[in-house]
Amino acid sequence: MAEAVKALTIARRRGMTIRVAGESGEGVITAGEMLTWALARAGLWVTTFRTYPAEIKGGPCMFQVRFDRKPLDSPTGPADVLIAFNDEAIALHQHAVRPGGVILYDRHDDGSEPAGLRPDVTARAVPFGKVALESLQNRLAKNMVALGATYAAMDLPLDSAKEFVARRFGSKGESVVSVNVRALELGYELAREQLAGLGRLAELSEEDDTTAGASDGATGRMVISGNQALSIGAIAGGCRYYAGYPITPASDILEFMAAQLPAFGGVTVQTEDEMAALASALGASFGGVPSMTATSGPGLSLMVELIGLGVMSELPVVIVDVQRAGPSTGMPTKTEQGDLNLAVYGGHGDAPRIVVAPVSVADCLDVGRRAFQLAGRYQTPVIVLSELVLAQRTESLPVPRGADLVLDVEWGGADADGKANGRLDGYYPRYVDAGDGVSMRPLPGDPAGLHVITGLEHDEYGHPNYEPEMHRRMSDKRRRKLEALQREVEANPGTWVERFGREGARIGLLGWGATYGAAKEAAELAEQLGIAVRGLWIKMLSPLPTRTVEAFVRDLDVVIVPEVNASGQLARYLEANGIRGNIVSMVKYEGLPFSADEILARIVEVAKGS
Amino acid sequence: MSMVKTSALPRLQDGVAMTPADYKGIKPIWCPGCGDYGILNALIQVLTRNQVDPARLAIVSGIGCSGRFPAFVKSYGFHGVHGRVLPVATGLKLARPDLTVVAVGGDGDGLAIGMGHLPHAIRRNVDITYLLFDNHIYGLTKGQPSPTTEVGHKTHASPYGVSEYPINPLAMALVAGATFVARGFSSHTRHLADLIEAALAHRGFSFVQIMTPCVTFYDTYKQWKQQAWELGEDHDPSDFQAALRLATEAEGMPIGIFYRVERPTLMDRLVAGAKDAARLQSGTRYDREADARQIDALLQRYR
User: Does B76 contact A451 at a Cβ distance shorter than 8 Å?
Assistant: First the structure.
């Protein structure tokens, strides 16, 4: 049955998907990035997915580009075209080509065929490497030859590819640019003879309203990754201090901040470890400067003691965890949604904190900004759970206006005037509960605001206090801040959940993070098969908008919860939060994201059973 | 006096006068006779002498008997977790260059659990002062050996005597590249106050090891009083090799400024190195219009 669903998915799958595969070092990623950029430049909506080895050189990697005239939610799923730079790439990736799809591979110099080619695809041997070697004396240029051929097959103008080459290789000198441009042209010419009969490869949707306002191509779109979007969002949200320790797949946030923050009057420090990163971010935050650190699971494990300190001392800070497969060092270059438990519960004692999770590249920009609002307003650490596939996914998006992105900054500095009257030895009562658990927070420099903060249990003045009543009161205070946030979110659920699908459907999809795209596409495909599905993606995981989730689950016969982890962390978390219903946990733990057809298969199964 | 660039201490407005009593926070809870009282008094002497604005002074601490120190001085304070004093102080100073930031911590906090941070704080040369309260023992947890406890010393946790060799904090700070290295003794309060004053005025990372006996778990008063001797004019604090020899070979327990050199701070280098550091230099963190323009320019790169 899974095969039947797959066939249906493919028949109805929108847009076009090209997968480039080869050995790391063969220019796979460059080719993929170029294709992405050129397609976006041509006015199409593009989304991408890549896998690569943990080694610097060698090992198989691939870059998949999916595009259409309408926006796409998910880059995963079967490819229409596979461009294979070597025989191993064919062996590893031909399973991902749809029946009737095309494989373009580098022709063997002796003219022999690769072993085990699938019979249900059109395979064309094109002498990418040979042309590169003979015409340019450089076999490494074969990726450009292959790209040139692909452009020809898709009827894409070669100008955009040449422009990309100039941008990417311009700093390496004119000769590098000209060799690559020549390679593109050779591939373009080659395609006329070699790919004749394939026709135009791209069959795309008709343009419609969804593209309105964004179809102005070159001027209105950008191609950006999840990590880039998150970084820009953070700066727009007010981030002016960044500290981080290098770790895959979060290092490019550190690199981005190091390059960009000074122009905004901000500072970036690469620290000696993740504990120092978060500790220094808390120091900056105490000084009134919005601060952030980004890491992956192993780093978040190390940061746990400082998360507790942030909660106890009530300091705002933003912690980004770009999740990768764990436990321990795990699989640094493979994706997983495995850190939900750690993010929500990690640490000793009761340490309520805010946990949010973007669902798409566009959402990375938005959640990156709003995380700072949350942290500042509730004076507590905010953990942003991103994922490797989201962080590295490049996508075409309409370019927002900077003026619409920049948020007001609220990061302490409350007017302490008069509050220090009735002071204890001249200290400011930093932890007086204003009702919703949040206190005024004067900043160093304010003569009326002197206070000491501490990781010890303390009284309203921040002075250590272990009285039974005090621990109860302060524990309640810290929890009440999150209850206030929870009420706010329940009152405006649209701010922290995404919904899709059909009202009144009896089958539901419930999840978090980057599974959103594949799930939404699965729901759309199910609809075309006559199965009504609706979905709810939770973007705020702590505090959980329990009533919103309950209301969603209540009206459904069955709720499928797809997650990229082994234990079904969200499904268990829902149960722990008293969400009752016919919840079916669906887990995948292979280091790879879901594709729509996998989720659709489960929907069809469930629909037949009910 | 040499023409050394110094960090000016934030002074109170004219017309406001603070006495030593005004600089006192809540009542300290150390054991009677603890050396830490001497350090507290020395710091308060310095603050009073310079009429330091308490609102622009921030004291950061870790865990241990020294951890409560920030609450005992009238200023802003951050009593953090064990071993992370220097990263917290670094973040605070980089975010708020206008503040005078003093980090305090014990030999356990700074040389055991927090040792990984010390050489990095040193090589960053952030403009903060680190007072290492060294009593050669874990006092707050009741007497376990620390990284500076002598070999053979018996405690409940080392019933057959300490087997590890002690760390030499001054030599370590010197070879890590510290720009200000000194040792004081809590019993020589006036001398210590002068050291702390010089450390605060030093522009860059200043490291002061302060010998402070624990009367309850490892009483070294008598021994250190006999061993301590103040460095004189014959020591040249700009001579690195002399400082290193002093730290490793000297008889007894020399106290004073071992080494002092002027070098750009981390902030100096960040400002000098960045492509567009005008706002970093002027401290302009927010400017809605400029921010929006800058973000527009960033987004342009992805077109």
Answer: yes
Task: Spell out the residues 6+ positions from residue A136 whose beta carbon is closer than 8 angstroms to its own.
Answer: A179, A182, A183, A186
Q: What is the pLDDT of residues A307-328, one digit of tens each?
A: 999 999 999 999 999 999 999 9
Compute the distance between CA of residue A60 and CA of residue A39 in angstroms, rounded to an integer.
25
CB-CB under 8 Å, A426 with B92: no
Looking from the CA of A240 toward its CB, the CA atoms found within 13 Å total 27
Can you list the domains of chain B with their CATH numbers? 20-263 (3.40.50.970)
Q: Which of A232, A277, A452 sits opposite B70 (nearest CB)?
A: A452
Q: Among B79, B102, B140, B288, which would you mutate to test the A interface (most chain A Cβ atoms within 10 Å of its Cβ)?
A: B79
Contact (CB<8Å) A403/B292: yes
CA–CA distance, B90 with A49 (Å, rounded to integer): 39
The verdict on A63 touching B (C-beta cutoff 8 Å) is no
CB B94 to CB A269 under 8 A?
Answer: yes
By the 8 A CB rule, do B197 and B131 touch?
no
Instruction: Give DSSP secondary structure letters for A302-350.
Output: HHHHHHHHHHHHT--EEEEEEE-B-STT-BTTS-----HHHHHH-SSS-
Inter-chain touch B286–A287, beta carbons under 8 Å: no
The DSSP call for residue A595 is -
A282–chain B Cβ distance below 8 A for any pair: yes
Rg (CA), chain B: 21
Mean predicted confidence (pLDDT) in A469-492: 97
Query: B295 to chain A: nearest residue by CA?
Result: A402
Contact A222 B302 (CB under 8 A): yes
pLDDT over 90 (residue A211) = no
A546: Cβ contacts below 8 Å, ≥ 6 apart: A486, A490, A577, A578, A579
Answer whether B101's CB lies under 8 Å from B109's CB: no
Angle at Cα B78 formed by Cα B72 and Cα B79, nearest 5°?
Answer: 75
